[in-house]
Amino acid sequence: MTGLLAILFFAWMIGAALLAIRQPDLLQSALGLSLLSLGAVGQFFLLHAPDVALTEAAIGAAASSFVMLMGVRQLGRTERKELQ
Amino acid sequence: MSRRLPLRKRFRVHTLLLIALCGWLLMLHLTLLLNHGLDAPSNGVGDLYLARNSETASANAVTTVVVSYRGFDTLGEVTVLFLAATGIGMLFAGGLGATPASRDRHNHPNEVMVTGTRLLFPALLLLGVYIVLHGHLSPGGGFQGGVIVATAFFLRMIADPKFSLDHAPLGWTESFAGSGFVLFGMLGLIFVTTASFLGNFLPHPVAAMGQLVSAGVIPLIYLLVGIKVGAEVGAIFQDMLEADHDTPVSARAAEEL
């Protein structure tokens, strides 16, 4: 059961990472990073580390995605190619 | 193969190697997770800490390590966070000489944001304070609870353009908490019974383990860490919001958002 859940969380994290990379809309890309952190929260919880899971939920899923969203608000939602 | 590969092809080989490395790490993690007994004893220092955990009367062994056994590291971490907050403040204020930008009071957030924040703000505040105060009993503690409280205030800042955190009280709160942390460490050094930095000089009977008032000095230090982290992360959010409202491009981007 734990293994099945772990694989499920892995699939979730890979999907979220793909969303973060592939999505041209930067708002949804930041959302993908937040979802990736949410998958990591599940992983930490399965590994019997609720303290780390709580930290990841507070900082990875919430605070850092807020910082990303502030960046998106400043730079605009569309991915500009000339920045690369 | 001696002939030179084109750049594009070489890049692709690197990508393949990177993917293979990631796959190998994933497999390693999976085997560790699936086959390694989660409760099997290891020969690390962690078991030693777990065996000695009852002497501090703190129900959460992680908190014991963070605040008591490795308390000096925590002091360093808090200092690093303080430096990061200071750096972000200077970066977004545009150097030392610049005056802080006034926020745009005419930028109205939408209704979903306002109503949702009205619903979430008290609950988030309560959750943060709970996690800070119960750091020695349940998972979590000063760092996590402090960030949750700061997040609640950040939502409030976004939803209500008139609401902002003043930097001077934040700075005072933060210095008070940091000085308190060092003071508790020094008190542990002074008292004869502990005679070590961050020693647990308050009474901490093992019989009280699991109660709110237990584990002596540990919950007090974690409360101070929570106040300090909350003030610093709140200051970071406030800096970013001020910078956001200052730039001319933000108006157009905010409309897009």
Order of helices and strands of chain A: HHH
Quaternary state of the chains: heterodimer
Secondary-structure element order of chain B, as H and E? HHHHHHHHH
**What radius of gyration of chain B results from the CA coordinates?**
24 Å
What is the averaged pLDDT score of chain B? 78
Structural class of chain B: mainly alpha
SS element count, helices of chain A: 3
Q: How many structurally independent domains of chain B?
A: 1
**Most extensive chain contact?**
A-B, 29 and 33 residues
Estimated helix fraction of chain A:
over 70%
Uncertain ranges of chain A: none
Q: How many beta-strand elements of chain A?
A: 0
Helix- and strand-based class of chain A? mainly alpha
The description of the largest β-sheet of chain A is: none
Average pLDDT score of chain A: 86
| Unreliably modeled segments of chain B | 96-103, 248-252
Report the sheet-strand fraction of chain A. Answer: under 5%
Amino-to-carboxy terminus distance of chain B: 52 Å
Proportion of residues in helical segments of chain B: 55-70%
Largest sheet of chain B: none
Gross geometry of chain A: flat
Structural commentary:
- The complex is a heterodimer of chains A (84) and B (257).
- With 84 residues, chain A is mainly alpha-helical.
- In chain A, helix 2 (26-46) packs antiparallel against helix 3.
- Chain A is 81% helix and 0% strand.
- The N and C termini of chain A lie far apart (44 Å).
- Chain B is mostly helical.
- Chain B has one domain (45-256).
- Chain B has 9 helices and no strands.
- Chain B has helices spanning 7-35, 45-52, 61-69, 71-92, 111-133, 142-159, 167-190, 218-246, 249-256.
- In chain B, helix 6 packs parallel to helix 8 (218-246).
- The longest helix of chain B is centred in the N-terminal third of the chain and has 29 residues, at 7-35.
- The termini of chain B are far apart.
